[in-house]
Amino acid sequence: GRLIAATHNQGKVRELKDLLEPLGFEPISAGDLNLEEPEETGLTFEENAELKALAAAKASGSPALADDSGLAVDALNGAPGIYSARWAGESKDFNLAMEKVNQALEDEKAAERTARFVCALSVAWPDGETVTFRGEVEGELVWPPRGSNGFGYDAMFVAKGETITFGEMEPARKHAMSHRANAFKLLTEALL
Ligand code: ITT
Q1: What separation in Å is there between the alpha carbon of 98 and the centre of ligand 1?
Q2: What is the mean pLDDT of residues 98-113?
Q3: Does the beta carbon of 46 sit less than 6 angstroms from any atom of ligand 1?
Q4: What is the per-residue pLDDT across 44-80, written as a single tens digit (0 to 9) for each?
Q5: CA nearest ligand 1 atom 19, residue
Q6: Closest of 104, 62, 74 to residue 87, by C-alpha
Q7: pLDDT (tens digit, 9 = 90+) per residue, 134-144?
Q8: Catalytic entry in 32, 67, 68, 93
Q9: Disulfide-capable partner of 122 in 21, 49, 57, 71 (CB 3.0 to 4.6 Å)?
C-alpha cells in the first residue's frame, strides 16, 4: 500500500526511495503531498523522528516513515546533533554548516576529529501506533570537504576503514554502510 516518506529533504527522499524500492514500496514524499512540516521540538533523534512520522500519518491517513538524523562530533560533545539541519541556517547552506563544524573543532584545538552520523527511522500509522529504530556510522571529519555526491555533511565525513568521503562515494556504497542503512536494516528485520 501507500507509504509516505515524511521528509522535506530531497537528499533523504532520494536515499529512502533507494532503500524502499527493492522492497516494493514507492514512497510519496511529504513535500509532494504538501503536508505541513511539524516543529521539531524533540530532544532526541528518536523523538523527532516519531513526531514527524505521526504528523504525516495523521494528516495523510496512510502509514508514514520519518527520518531524523544528524552529525554528532565527539570533541563538540555531540554537536551539531539534532541541530544539524539548523546549523545550515534559513538558506540551508551546508558549505556554511561544514565550515562551522570545522571552525568549532579548530577553536577547541580538538585532537580528535571523530564523529558519527546518527539516523532514527520511525514508522507511524494513522491510529497512532509507532515503531522507531536507530542506526549509526562511525568516522572522521576531514577538511577541506571533498566530493559532491550525497548531501548535508557528506563531503567532510570519512567512514571508519574508508579513505574517501561520503561525498566522493557511489550512492550504492554509501547505502550499504550508512547510519540510514543501519537503521533501515533494523526496521526491515522488525517489520518485514
Ligand atoms: P526533514 O526534517 O524534513 O526530514 P531535515 O533536513 O530538516 O529534513 P533533520 O532535521 O533530520 O532533517 O536534519 C538532518 C540533517 O543532518 C540533514 O539536513 C543533513 O544536513 C544531516 N544529515 C543527515 N543524514 C545525512 C547524511 O546521510 N549525509 C550527510 N548529512 C546528513
Answers
A1: 13
A2: 97
A3: no
A4: 999 999 999 999 999 999 999 999 999 999 999 999 9
A5: 152
A6: 104
A7: 999 999 999 99
A8: 68
A9: 49
Query: To test the ligand 1 pocket, which listed residue (17, 41, 67, 84) has its Cβ within 8 A of the most ligand atoms?
Result: 84
Domain boundaries, the chain: 4-191
Q: Is the CB of 67 inside a 6 Å radius of any atom of ligand 1?
A: yes
Q: Say which CATH architecture domain 4-191 belongs to.
A: Alpha-Beta Complex (3.90)
Is a pLDDT exceeding 80 seen at residue 1?
A: no
Q: Residue of the nearest CA to atom 15 in ligand 1?
A: 85
Does position 192 have pLDDT exceeding 90, yes or no? no
Nearest to residue 49, comparing CAs of 123, 118, 129, 116?
123
Atom of ligand 1 nearest to the CA of 97: 20
Hey, which bits of 108-147 come out as E strands? Answer: 114-124, 130-141
DSSP string, 70-108: EEEEGGGTT-BGGGTTGGGTTTT-HHHHHHHHHHHHHHT
Distances (CA, A) of 69 to 50, 89, 127, 183: 12, 16, 25, 10
- Tell me the percentage of the chain whose pLDDT exceeds 70: 100
Q: Whose CA is nearest to atom 2 of ligand 1?
A: 7
pLDDT digits (tens, 9 = 90+) for 157-186: 999 999 999 999 999 999 999 999 999 999
Q: Is the CB of 85 under 6 A from ligand 1?
A: yes
